[in-house]
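Task: encode each sequence below as structure tokens.

Item 1
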Amino acid sequence: MLADTARFAALAGELAAGTPCAPRRARAVADYLGLLCDSIHHHHRIEDEVLWPTLTAAAGDAVDVRELTDDHAQLDPMLAEIRAACADLVARRPDAAGVLAERLTRLHTVLDEHIADEERTVFPIVAAYVTTAQWEKVEAAARCAVAAVWSPSRSASSARTVSTGPKATDPESRPAMVPALGSRS
């Protein structure tokens, strides 16, 4: 998530600065970011519906996930704004790439802080209180959510490569390529 939000914020910034963006490339970027938004939404939904109840059942008063839940409430409107900016990019609206870059940068910042908070709050509680059986239930729910987001039929239209540079066809100056279904770290 963090790598993708940073990478695509930079890409959108390059587009806003004048790097050419053919309609096919704009569609590939929008498709990928739509899948990324789905993945983020499903990730926090599983935390809210499965992980947080598991933690509170296992650890009781030793854990407080209210701040993390509040962060999740901020994410859905941000994801909707990114989807809207993607639609504007595909529609070739002026300033769409700049707006997308700003929204992705903001999402990256929120996710970075949120993930750091989760690591400080959740990991010690899982290690101290959650049983193997409880954790397996959480993992099973997460796998089902991932399968729904990244199913082959769903992602087939996005399984193309998005260039992070203007000369992807020139073997001498071929830039790093961003797989459309790349890292979801």
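Item 2
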Amino acid sequence: MIVGFLEGADLLGRGFGTWRRHPGLMLLGLVPAALVFSLIVVALVTFGFGLPRLAHWATPFADDWTPLWRGILRWGLVVVSFAAAVVVAMMTFTALTLAVGDPFYERIWRAVELDLGGEVPERGAGFWRGVADAGELLALGIAAALAVWLVGFIPLVGGVLAPVAGAFLSGRILARELAGRAFEARGMRLRERRATLRLAPARVLGFGVATQLCFLVPFGAILAMPAAVAGATLLARGLLDQATASPPSPSATGSPPTVSTVQPEASASTSEDERFSSRG
């Protein structure tokens, strides 16, 4: 589990190594990330400054409480709500950046695929497929943010569990979305992609959490986005190679095992000897 998690995090580091081989492509990948990042930061800061008033409006019943407990409730609500907003912001950033920068990131994906060798699809998933994936990612991000928001209200431990839950939930979603380009280019259906990701869940989670932590660093999302696309390609190719090397068992495919109906030659010879003995 831990080894697989660290292997996934290392894939992001190898994605940064793509800067040495394809600096021009990686530099282009910064452009859409910078544009979307600016919009997300403005929206997140505006929401953050408005949160205290929102918490005061949402808790009128606490007006008669002592200042200590009233402050604990309202500032706890502010912290939990902002943590949930960060989850939504990261999902929104990834979704919009991949959609807006699809031509740039497809070139990065193809360059990494060619570096790895083997069979490479002639074209990626396409712009509209990226738009559909962006909508799905936003929906998953909202669901994850709601889960983080609810976890934050668990007494005593909610303030600690909420960021941890957010890291694991959003990390898994990010990894799945970033690796989807390599799967979709090969015409894999959703069920097939999920089955492939389940081959190494710790590796997938490690890559996603490492990517998310980079996104939390100031301006880290801009610098990490091209590397995340490259690292996700490495992740997907590794999983595809693993799936090819480990074909499903008969029970997994639903087909009954093949049973031989040919009798061994030795058994046939024994039967002939017995018939000759009985005649004698």
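Check on item 2: DSSP finds twelve helices and no strands in the chain. Residues 2-250 form one domain.
End of task.
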